[in-house]
Amino acid sequence: MGEGALRSLPATVALTVLTCVTAATMGALFRDGSWVGRVVGAALVCHAVLWAARRWRMAQPAAALTAVVAVFLFACWALFPHTTLLGLPTGRTFSSVGGAFHDTRRAFSALVPPVPSLPGFVLSAMAGVTIVAVLSDWAAFRLQAPLEAVVPALATLIFVALLARDSNGLGWVAGFVLTTGCFLLLHRAGQDRGGPRFAGRAFPLVTRGGLVLTAVAVLASVAVGPHLPGARSPGLVNVHGGAAGGESRRTTISPLVDIRTRLVQESNLQLFTVRAGSAQYWRLTALDHFDGDIWSSDESYSNIRGALPVAVPPTGTSTVAQAYSVSGLGSIWLPAAYLPVSETGAPAASWDARSASLISSAPTSDGLAYSVVSAVPAFNAAELRTAELANVDPTYLALPPVPSDVLSLARRITAGLPTAYDKARALQDYLRNHYSYSLSVPPGHSYSALQQFLFVTRRGYCEQFAGSYAVMARAVGLPTRVAVGFTPGTLGSDGLWHVYGLHAHAWPEVQLGRFGWVAFDPTPGRGIPGGTAYTGLPAEQASPTGPGGVAVPAVPAATPTTSATRTPPTTAAPVSPPGAHRAPKAPVRPARPFPWRLVAVLASVAALAAAWLVGVPAAKARRRSRRRRRAADDAARILVAWEEAAERLAAAGWARQPPETYLEHARRAAVGAGLSPPVADSLGALAAQAAGAAYGSNGHRPEDVALACRRALEVEEAVLAGAGRWRRMAWETDPRPIRSAARPSVRGGS
Questions:
Q1: Separation of alpha carbons 270 and 327, rounded Å
Q2: Taking a C-beta distance cutoff of 8 angstroms, is the pair 698, 639 a contact?
Q3: Residues near 570 by Cβ (< 8 Å), separated by ≥ 6?
């Protein structure tokens, strides 16, 4: 196979290009292009290793395993280089891989494409491309079935088309057809003429097996694809923009789902800088809907220019001007200190008064430079105690049935407290004093995750602290939502606040009557700048060098150089201005637990595999039985025996060539297949019988038929005995011999 590998090099290159085109179609599933080099690189690495394995005559299982290991090493270098030692994965690398899949598990059950290029999503895409490469290489160069080699790529193309909402279908189909044609032509040109053939033809342009495999792939994609995690689920956050041409809808990932990735894997990544006169929480948005599994929002945004239509709470405020330069945020939201009253510099920015948030018209705010002026409220405990809850929007109190243990805890913490502020403060202080901060917990803020946090582990990070607070506050009648953003960051010598991934944070906001939305922070080691008078907490945030979330004062510090923790962002939000329009909230589909989705997918794949492994051998056995029944006389029965032996030889790579006679084929195949002298003699005698049956008169006897059948069985058993287990399995499940016409050869054939 070494020389064959050299001859197959052009076809290998063409097949690699086909896999790369297949990988490129996944662009419709991602919202940016940072994944491209990694996924295409996985395809290149996999095909290169598989070609080298054929060059070095490695068995298919060993070649596939080597390719998978090579792609895994490449993934470690591409995604987690800082965790490797001398280029080799360490325990930290495996932990990072597990964490990446953990972080994206919930996103699979709740997102619709395009999704952010989170490491878990990129790893999944790399794994998919690796599977396509291994299967296509095996079919093309091990089984010599070029048409079947295209099926994995075709199935992937169909799968992407099912998931993607805005894919360039015509363009990808054209690219697929073009690269497929090039591969088939190059494969035919480089085919080893002594290698495996089927039915005496040098190239099976269309085989029954190819059509069957294609049909199975299409049916699998159609049946399984729509039920894969995220295929039909609504997005976590829907934003509606009131453009001149009518309302538009944008679905994007919730920043709360994204938060652990920022804290752990993007802790060293600078997201944006701010020039501001004072430290603030740089707020992105607020989430006001909880379905028992996820916090989300569905808001209406309108285009703005300059001043924002906001209602400033009737309390003392300070004006804070900010100048932002966004570099790696990867979000549609524009950070701003609460409460923004004007914005300039961001083209076609939109504003939602209900959540007090700004969004960009572009797919991401990266590269934008804009300015915001905010009226930052100043609260104190005495005045907040005068707040009265009246005319509360029921949206901010809505909850699915609260678990009894969570409800009992919330009532016990707030029992006997006279004011809404006292209850809000008590919840904050209880969580800070009875629970510890840790990033080594699974992500999530569903009811089950909150019960695990509150009553089992008693450890978590801002996602669990903010989510628990918001649920318990609503359970005791406090209108609440979850805000997401960043703590101040570190003040550099350039006078800019440098905000990194480790500064990502989430915190609750409570609506306290005429004072509007007031931020609290239950996360230990975090404190809102300027909030000491009512929270009782100093301004603190995550340390860039401390382990697991060490807090430092939110004052000038050196820019961070390593990974570790996070911080809190923002404060209160205003009341919607009169006459503001809010689009009706889209119905939220309850998310099924992810493991059951995975079980359903795996069960579907297993069922298809079982159907293939059972169905193909059964179809071949049925064809063999029908062919024997259709043999009308003894001569035809002898030809059937010959054909059965010849098919086994063809599967082993020794098919009969068009110019060969029966005896010539028998002599060449006996030498090539390494048959023992007695078996070679039996094959020669069977060939002589077949020649007599094809060209002679019908003077054969039943004992001649029995002898031919014994000789054919002897040849088949010898060929099978000389093959390994995997090769025999491949022969049994190879669908190519299944043909529409199950009949013996026509007498008089060559």
A1: 7
A2: no
A3: 280, 281, 282, 283, 337, 338, 483, 485, 507, 509, 519, 528
**Domain covering 240-585, topology:** C8orf32 fold (3.10.620)
Sign of the alpha-carbon dihedral angle for 657, 662, 666, 668: negative
Collapsing DSSP states into helix, strand and coil, what is residue 282?
A: strand
Residue length of the chain:
750
- What are the residue ranges spanned by the domains of the chain? 2-227, 240-585, 616-732
Sheet-wide strand order for 340-344: 306-307, 340-344, 369-377, 317-326, 270-276, 497-500, 490-491
Q: Which amino acid is at 41?
A: G
Task: State the pTM of this model.
Answer: 0.53
Q: Indicate whether 112 pLDDT > 70.
A: no
In order of 444, 450, 594, the CA distances from 294 in angstroms are 8, 11, 13
Q: How confident is the model at residue 230 (pLDDT cuts 50, 70, 90)?
A: very low
Beta-carbon-side half-sphere exposure of residue 501 (alpha carbons within 13 Å) = 19
Contact 468, 449 (CB under 8 A): no
pLDDT in tens, 619-662: 778 788 888 888 888 888 888 888 888 888 888 888 888 788 88
Q: Report pLDDT for 304.
A: 79
**Segment 48-60 mean pLDDT:** 86
Q: Where are the alpha helices (DSSP H) in 229-364?
A: 259-264
Residues 616, 738: contact at Cβ < 8 Å? yes
Task: Note whether 624 and 648 are within 8 A (CB).
Answer: no
